[in-house]
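quick one
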Amino acid sequence: MLRIAKGLLTIIAVATIAVGATGAYFSDSKTVSGNTFTAGTLALTVGTPSSAVWTMPTMAPGQSTGVQTLTVTNTGSLKGHLSLNIAFLPADSVPNAVDVTDQDVAKNMIVDSATWVDNSNVAPGLNLIGSLVTDSNSNGWIDLDDLQTAVNGVGTIATLVSSESGSLAMNIRFNPSVGNNFQSDGIQMTLTGTLTSY
Ligand SMILES: [Ca+2]
Ligand SMILES: [Ca+2]
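structure w/ calcium ion:
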């Protein structure tokens, strides 16, 4: 016991001497400046055409738009997560005996093809049918009602970095089997894209 206590004292004494012997130091310092914090931007720009991309003003059963493409670009400086919302407004002409609802018209606007192209999904792009869009209303085909169900409220459907563009290409066809009740009925589809940074 006594031997151990002596050993400790010795060590402490040596340590004190060592500190005393290194009283002078070299030193060096660096300054890191320019730490500025400026909020980046998010801006979504719609290409040409910027409206009426898919349109059939006097459509007949079986008529299609052909493949038409909507292009959007993230013109801000931040990476953005793109979400999409689809709304239908009535676009009826002079009503005939039966006024078919907007949603029933949407269910008979068949989406024959739908692809998405961006930097990570180069041409011919990601086939949205079967991946994003399924026959959620179980009528046997993919339609605008299914597309609305697939995108509204689901959150991010694509990511666009600064200056990156994304293109949605679709061919939309009026169901060739609709009956006379569909005469004069129509819808206007509004697509709202939102970029969010998180
Ligand atoms: Ca009608
Ligand atoms: Ca369907």
